[in-house]
Amino acid sequence: MIPFNNLGFVFKHFGSIIYSKPILEDLCLFLHGFTDKESVLDIGAGTGVMSEFAYRCNDKLKFTALDPAEGMLKYAPAYLEVHVGVAEALPFEESSFDAVFMGESLHHFNNPNMAFKEVSRVLKKGGKLFIYDFDSGTFLGKSICFMEKLLGEPANFYKPNILKELLEEYGFVVKVNHYKWRYTISAYLQE
Ligand SMILES: C[S@@+](CC[C@H](N)C(=O)[O-])C[C@H]1O[C@@H](n2cnc3c(N)ncnc32)[C@H](O)[C@@H]1O
What we know:
Largest sheet: 7 strands, mixed
Number of strands: 7
Number of helices: 7
Radius of gyration: 15 Å
CATH architecture of the domain at 35-40 and 87-189: 3-Layer(aba) Sandwich
Shape: globular
CATH superfamily of the domain at 35-40 and 87-189: Vaccinia Virus protein VP39
Helix content: 25-40%
Mean pLDDT: 97
Strand content: 25-35%
Distance between the termini: 39 Å
Order of helices and strands: HHEHEHEEHEHHEE
Bound molecules: S-adenosylmethionine
Strand order of the largest sheet: 3-2-1-4-5-7-6
CATH class of the domain at 35-40 and 87-189: Alpha Beta
């Protein structure tokens, strides 16, 4: 297993390197139209790298971060309300959030299906989901998957179009953007 609990310092200082410009543009586009005080949940937030980028697009939102590794969360910025927990059992009431993010975290979840069920429970109807991860259909994506399996990680990587179909089963309308070995998904939960 990757010892995330001991990697907070590393992610705080170097975690943003893996976010490229088009991915950040997608994130800002995703947040376009959000009004003040709408609530967003960053799942597998780590030190809050994705929320920090989102904050630069819109600093009026109410940010919540969830991660099992306290050693990551302790580096989160003060405007993030932090919760220790896992994606498969979200400690929130139904319809609590206007949007959910997952930045390079989905492939670490032990049970992505359970996580999607939970996301559709805590999202309001019409709520939005943004995912950024690595494409297992590409050479680099496959290589990362192989290495993570060696490290004992769940390595639940997807080909983005397969993930699209899976999310549709949970009631999402999905748009995929491909960036070579990476992809983003912008989706919303149907009313
Ligand atoms: C590669 S880090 C990404 C952190 C952050 N989103 C970023 O972009 O820097 C993956 C994170 O997923 C978290 N994680 C692992 N299993 C999880 C689970 N079942 N539910 C939620 N988060 C999980 C890890 O603790 C870790 O902080």
